[in-house]
Write a structure and sequence with these properties.
Length: 354
Amino acid sequence: MTENVSGASYAAAGVDIEAGDRAVELFAPIAKKATRPEVRGGLGGFAGLFALGNYEKPLLAASSDGVGTKLAVAQAVGKHDTIGLDLVAMVVDDLVVCGAEPLFLQDYIAIGKVVPEHVAEIVSGIAEGCVQAGCALLGGETAEHPGVMDPDEYDVSATGVGVVEEDKVLGPDRVREGDVIIAMASSGLHSNGYSLARHVLLEKAGLELDAYVEDFGRTLGEEMLEPTKIYAKDCLALMNEAEVRTFCHVTGGGLVGNMVRIMPEGLTADMSRATWTPGPIFKTIAELGNVAREEMEKTFNMGIGMVAIVSAEDRDRALALLTARHIDAWELGTVRATAEGEEGAVLTGSHPRF
């Protein structure tokens, strides 16, 4: 007696190759908009090609990152077209810290089940982020992981490559006593601290993502999904017009934790809370979760997404340029000699109205 048993197949195991091909068809026109003249070939090859161009002593800079648990909010809300902006921001704004111009980015999407329209939404955000950063989306990979991830679950990561002339590399060695510290406002939580934010707002306080919050002027979900600001072009423009010593991308670890990384031995970044007021989202988390200021400041950006250290002579020029580029920027502090037993960065005073 012969049993009629269907043969095993990739599709039966949960991987839909045709859906993957359809996803590529949908996002290809979008991805092609995120390009540069140096790109060679097109999408669909095994590797992306990029002509480096004419440099005297070029140094390549590389950065890899993801978006963390902000993805959980995007998946809960069902909005996937902005998470790519967060991804690009986390990568390219690390590159510009050393003065590198972002050249290209490659993404990786791991997803439980490929729904072409769903993947196209994610890639559309990545492509738009690349356009905003002035870099090319050179390629990427979408991997379907049935049985490992739930059908609606996905994760994203990316690697970006930039270039900087060897004699123009920014860093702690350029920082001098008397330099001015300029803050650039964040657009909100950006892409750090979401495990704590979700715990306080959704679990502890029991708020719903679709609930309208008067202090935000929109729903909680909309506030939490506000895309990370991409500063790359603004930082590069500032480098061309002012004496920039280095930048600091304020991500995990907060303002002080990241500023320490760019300060040379013997100098301290002396910054004042009195120069700005963190946005409503930070106050809400602090109050609803009874989160101590120290914990808030080492977890969140608290309203500052990028910092530039410039020469004192170029303070006004730098602030004027950033204002002209519609960046909310202000003098956060100055660089001074380190006192005995002091860290490389200090934050003093209190926030007004916080």
